[in-house]
């Protein structure tokens, strides 16, 4: 088995996830890195070869990102098996879903540190694609190593780092016809006498989305970002400092049926501010002792600022009709402190143990101003102040035990201690309180190498998600209704099984897996009952309402090696999901049974001063239905049609060092009218996007 054997090479190559400066060692030592031999760090918090992992892992490397004109990271991930893109009507703040789970049940990391978000629809991907070196995705619970929110999986964005020369420059500019959008990026980076560094900035402005049915209102958005990183080795020790800031404003599209659902006559949302700022410190000490190859520590502080405004109009008919207009202005800040101390042990040649201690404190401070006009009479304005926090301490450990030459068993466990506090509030009906919970979760994995480059794998893992600050402490607004928090909520839990086969033969790679996930105590909001003590019968309350069982098949195959210039590929997902609510059970979960991408890449031989490629692909989903509880307690059924798009992309790189590049993508060539099953917005119609990149050193 190759788990411990290539560790020295892996440690040298791990920087290749972030910088070409350490890509050389594998070339010098003869390490061959192909698709399934990619070295990843997310699956076990330490270097590991994809072929030898019991988890389901996907990788998007720098070359793939460079061949995309996507203005958001979520769009760059659309072709990955088991991954869906969700927009919640906000085109500038997309999220991802894994295996049909809601976005808030997926952990989003930047360089291994979680980006926290406590609002209802999950963590937006607030990082510019040009600042990312690679994306590693673990599908299936990662809660043992990465904690709450990793119930469905982990997405780790590994940023770009230093260079090979004292001063290097890179700049790019992109354009998208579907939004008349422009993207700009510039970066200065290098290695100045052992001090590696990078400074980068990006800016995007996009207008209304153009679809086959015309432009969609409230879909314009813009964002700006800045990034700085520095790292230096001090013998066997390494220190890195990173800072990034992302500023975003986006329109929010509300579908007509939701905007005018009784008693609403109009409803609008505006998100004028959705900013994130992060300061991070990383420390690593290698070769500490013969039994202690690595000690790591990292800390980060994160600040989130969110302005979220809603405007609603309702009409309740009757002998004396009641017409109400309500404007709610929410201004919330979220501050997070997170630190991890990790020790990697090799007490025996057949054991590699990753252990650690993690402490996280998340604090939200929210101000809401509510203006109400009823039948033309202005009511007293309402100002609401809430402060709440969650404090989590966790111990984790995972042991990779080589049972035999070709068989490895992986055992993991994590012990949580969580305390949630509503520290201050002036909202009627709420009082400061404290809740706590303790939970032990485990995982078990098995890898067996049938032959060289043929590996069977299996994995069982538990997942755990503690209620968010909104759900247990401060509540939220859904249209004109207030959703009351519930301090008695149980954490959401899951149990996932999966098994698969990976092989590499005759220039082809093949990675297939089956999975089943059983989830319990899903949290959602329902209308208040008299015993809930809500202030208004129109209000809602968060409760543990549902369960879910999901099973599926994920497949990726491609020709990755050889002399042929034609490289076919396929990425397919089959999934069946059953949701259990209080009053009914349904298999109409909104998840398509079949989705994926089929394509062919051509990489012809050009002149010595030019490289190029063309990619022709089909992407689509089968039809799906979504049955959910309605406001009346009954079920509603929505349907999404099947869709299939034809897409063509190509690129050229010029110069002996390939410093000038051009990428062009032609999307939805048949001008199909569709929306994906996880998105509210219609997809763009036939469109073209392009990006030009220039690098100097």
Précis, in short:
With 697 residues, this protein is mainly beta.
Assign a percent range to the helix content.
under 10%
- CATH homologous superfamily? TonB-dependent receptor, beta-barrel domain
Mean pLDDT: 90
The CATH C-level name is: Mainly Beta
- Overall structural class, as computed from helix and strand content, comes to mainly beta
Question: Mind explaining what this structure looks like?
Answer:
By secondary structure, the protein is mainly beta. It has one domain (7-696): Beta Barrel (Maltoporin, Chain A). It has a 22-stranded antiparallel beta barrel. A five-stranded mixed beta sheet has the order 3-8-9-6-7. A hairpin with a 2-residue loop joins strand 17 (264-289) and strand 18. The chain is globular. The two termini are 41 Å apart. Residues 1-33 have low confidence and may be disordered.
Q: What are its keywords?
A:
disordered N terminus; 39 strands; 697 residues; Maltoporin, Chain A; mainly beta
SSE arrangement:
Elements lengths: L6 H7 L10 H6 L9 E2 L7 E2 L6 E5 L1 H5 L6 H4 L6 E4 L8 E4 L7 E5 L2 E2 L17 E8 L3 H4 L6 E7 L8 E9 L4 E12 L2 E12 L2 E3 L2 E3 L4 E14 L2 E15 L4 H4 L4 E26 L2 E25 L5 E24 L5 E24 L2 E2 L3 E23 L2 E19 L7 E19 L2 E12 L3 H6 L1 E3 L2 E4 L7 E14 L2 E20 L12 E20 L6 E15 L4 E2 L7 E9 L7 E12 L2 E6 L5 E6 L2 E12 L5 E8 L19 E10 L1
């Amino acid at each position: 088995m190759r788990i411990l054997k290539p560790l020295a090479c892996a440690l040298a190559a791990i920087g290749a996830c972030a910088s070409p400066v350490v890509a050389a060692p594998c070339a010098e030592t003869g390490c061959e890195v192909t698709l399934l031999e990619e070295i990843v760090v997310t699956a076990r918090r330490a270097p590991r070869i994809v072929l030898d992992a019991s988890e389901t892992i996907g990788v998007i490397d720098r070359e793939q990102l460079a061949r995309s004109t996507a203005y958001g990271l979520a769009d760059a991930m659309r072709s990955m098996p088991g991954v869906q893109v969700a927009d919640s009507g906000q085109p500038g703040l997309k999220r991802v879903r894994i295996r049909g789970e809601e976005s808030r049940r997926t952990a989003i990391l930047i360089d291994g540190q979680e980006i926290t978000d406590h609002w209802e629809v999950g963590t937006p991907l607030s990082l510019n694609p040009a600042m990312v070196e690679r994306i590693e995705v673990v599908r299936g619970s990662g809660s043992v190593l990465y904690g709450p929110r990793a119930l469905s999986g982990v997405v780790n964005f590994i940023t770009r780092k230093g260079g090979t020369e004292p001063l290097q420059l890179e700049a790019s500019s992109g354009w998208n016809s579907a939004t008349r959008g422009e993207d700009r990026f510039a970066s200065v980076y290098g290695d100045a006498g052992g001090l590696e560094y990078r400074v980068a900035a990006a800016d995007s402005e996009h207008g209304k989305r153009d679809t086959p049915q015309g432009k969609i209102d409230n879909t314009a958005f813009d964002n700006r970002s800045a990034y700085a990183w520095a790292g230096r080795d001090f013998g066997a020790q390494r220190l890195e400092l990173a800072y990034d800031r992302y500023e975003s404003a986006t329109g929010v599209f509300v579908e007509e049926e939701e905007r005018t659902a009784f008693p609403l006559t109009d409803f609008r949302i505006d998100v004028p501010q959705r900013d994130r700022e992060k300061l991070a410190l990383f420390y690593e000490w290698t070769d500490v002792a013969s039994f202690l190859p690595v000690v790591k520590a990292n800390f980060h502080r994160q600040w989130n600022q969110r302005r979220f405004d809603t405007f609603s109009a309702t009409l309740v008919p009757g002998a004396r009709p009641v017409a109400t207009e309500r404007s709610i202005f929410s201004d919330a800040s979220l501050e997070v402190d997170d630190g991890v101390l990790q020790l990697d042990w090799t007490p025996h040649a057949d054991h590699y143990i990753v252990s650690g201690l993690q402490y996280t404190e998340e604090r939200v401070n929210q101000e809401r101003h509510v203006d109400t006009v009823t039948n033309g009479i202005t009511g007293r304005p309402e100002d609401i102040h809430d402060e709440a926090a969650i404090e989590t301490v966790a111990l984790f450990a995972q042991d990779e035990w080589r049972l035999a030459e070709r068989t490895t068993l992986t055992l993991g466990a994590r012990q949580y201690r969580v305390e949630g506090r509503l520290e201050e509030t002036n909202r009627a009906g709420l009082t400061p309180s404290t809740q706590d919970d303790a939970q032990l979760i485990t995982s078990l994995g098995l890898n067996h190498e049938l032959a060289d480059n043929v590996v069977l794998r299996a994995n069982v893992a538990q997942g755990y998600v503690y209620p968010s600050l909104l759900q247990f402490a401060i509540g939220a607004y859904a249209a004109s209704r207030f959703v009351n928090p519930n301090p008695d909520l149980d954490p959401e839990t899951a149990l996932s099984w999966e098994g698969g086969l990976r092989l590499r033969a005759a220039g082809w790679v093949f990675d297939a897996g089956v999975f089943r996930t059983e989830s319990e105590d899903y949290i959602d909001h329902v209308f208040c009952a008299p015993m809930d003590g809500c202030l208004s019968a129109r209000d809602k309350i968060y409760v543990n309402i549902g369960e879910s069982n999901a099973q599926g098949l994920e497949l990726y195959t491609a020709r990755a090696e050889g002399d042929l210039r034609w490289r076919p590929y396929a990425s397919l997902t089959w999934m069946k999901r059953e949701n259990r609510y209080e009053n009914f059970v349904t298999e109409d979960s909104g998840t398509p049974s079949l989705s994926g991408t089929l394509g062919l890449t051509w990489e012809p031989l050009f002149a010595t001063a030019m490289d190029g490629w063309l990619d022709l692909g089909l992407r689509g989903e089968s039809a799906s239905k979504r049955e959910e509880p309605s406001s009346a307690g009954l079920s509603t059924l929505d349907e999404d049609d099947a869709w299939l798009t034809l897409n063509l992309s190509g690129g050229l790189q010029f110069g002996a060092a390939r410093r000038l590049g051009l990428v062009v993508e032609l999307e939805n060539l048949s001008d199909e009218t569709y929306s994906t099953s996880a998105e509210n917005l219609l997809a763009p119609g036939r469109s073209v996007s392009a990006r030009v990149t220039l690098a100097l050193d």
